[in-house]
Amino acid sequence: NRRLVLRARRDGLPHVGDFAVEHAPMPEPGPGQFVVRNLYASLDPALRQRLTLTDSYVPRIELGEVLTATTVGVVAASRDPAYPVGSHVVGHHGIADYWLTAAGPVTRTIDPSAASSLSHFLSVLGPTGLTAYFGITRVARPRAGETLLVTGAAGAVGSVAGQIARLSGCRVIGIAGGADKAARLTGEYGFDAGIDYRDKTLAGLTAAIRDAAPEGIDLLFENVGGIQLDAAIDCMNERGRIAVCGLISQYNATEPPPPLTNLFKLVARSIRMEGFIVRNYASEYAAAAATLARWVGEGKIHFRESIHDGLEAGPEAFLSLFTGWNQGKVMLRLEPS
Ligand code: NDP
């Protein structure tokens, strides 16, 4: 039984050598517990916060501890009748071949036939698809005819968020890094416009947003922060709404971010800005995942996955989230012996 542990922590971008694969004994379930044989493990930007921050919404990982994440797996041994051997589960587990656990708020059994690959339970039918779903439907709350801007738009959450808003009748504009990703927004995800933020100043980005949305932005789905958020606020209409999903540009920052020059426009234009965490909606995951599965089946939502093989690939795969090298939901495929 192998597992991925934290060896060192640092400010700034983590190093591959900050993580290690360790061997551990095979766990045995006690009463009410079960052992999951992990098949896929999600690698999320939030894991970066958990390496150093002590005041985030998730507990810090201590040195020597196993990294935890959402995984999909199959129950290998069980003393909980609700999770029988052979059933498929999604939950918050160690990034390990086998993991001893018990039922928790985000644990659920899944029907593997609901998707063409189990990996989809970590991407469009899992935490990232669900984040997009609840962030758009509960926080941004789009109305037909409105214009939505998504930052981090070619990523796992952003690409789905934009497509869900389009299904609500919005005009959707996305910002992503590089010409290829910007082109993918319109070509693959059906957005109305895509903007490449690389090499753009605050003024350049603001001009590009105004160009793509001359009528202004009503809704912002924010994944990035920094000058992307600043430029977007400048382009927002009266009574606009901002759903703050993440601020990835700050996760490895070693200096405080520069102040938002347009912040007062929230006051002047009566703009609502609201953060959210997907697990606030844990009791509704199954119903939302069923809706997402239907949209995927109907060809209304497209998504990409960046799947890496083996625990050893974990550190590089994780770091790809911060270089933009990933092309969709980043995860590990595990094949325990
Ligand atoms: P993505 O698939 O979007 O991958 C991360 C992307 O972020 C990269 O591909 C890169 O895209 C962009 N990026 C990375 N570093 C920077 C930077 N310094 N400046 C600008 N862009 C950067 O990841 P996810 O879809 O998993 O996550 C997207 C966001 O959603 C994150 O902020 C994450 O924290 C948040 N999140 C929030 C949740 C919640 O419950 N609130 C739950 C899950 C995720 P590019 O190449 O375009 O630059």
Describe the structure.
Residues 17-332 form the Enoyl reductase (ER) domain. Pfam families: ADH_N_2 (PF16884), ADH_zinc_N (PF00107). Keywords: Oxidoreductase. The chain has helices at residues 46-52, 127-140, 156-167, 179-187, 202-212, 227-234, 265-268, 285-297, 314-323; strands at 2-6, 19-23, 33-42, 68-78, 88-94, 98-102, 108-110, 147-151, 171-176, 193-196, 217-222, 236-244, 272-275, 305-309, 329-333. The protein is an alpha/beta fold. It folds into two domains: 2-123 and 303-333, Medium-chain alcohol dehydrogenases, catalytic domain (Quinone Oxidoreductase, Chain A, domain 1); 127-278, NAD(P)-binding Rossmann-like Domain (Rossmann fold), CATH 3.40.50.720. The strands form three sheets. Strands 3, 4, 5, 6, 7, 14 and 15 form a seven-stranded mixed β-sheet that branches. Strands 10-9-8-11-12-13 form a six-stranded parallel β-sheet, with helices on both faces. The protein has a two-stranded antiparallel ribbon with strand order 1-2. Helix 2 crosses helix 3, helix 2 packs across helix 8 (285-297) and helix 5 (202-212) crosses helix 6. The longest helix has 14 residues, at 127-140. The radius of gyration is 20 Å and the shape is globular. The chain starts with a strand and ends with a strand. The structure holds NADPH dihydro-nicotinamide-adenine-dinucleotide phosphate (NDP). The site of NADPH dihydro-nicotinamide-adenine-dinucleotide phosphate has 28 residues, from helix 2, helix 3 and helix 9.
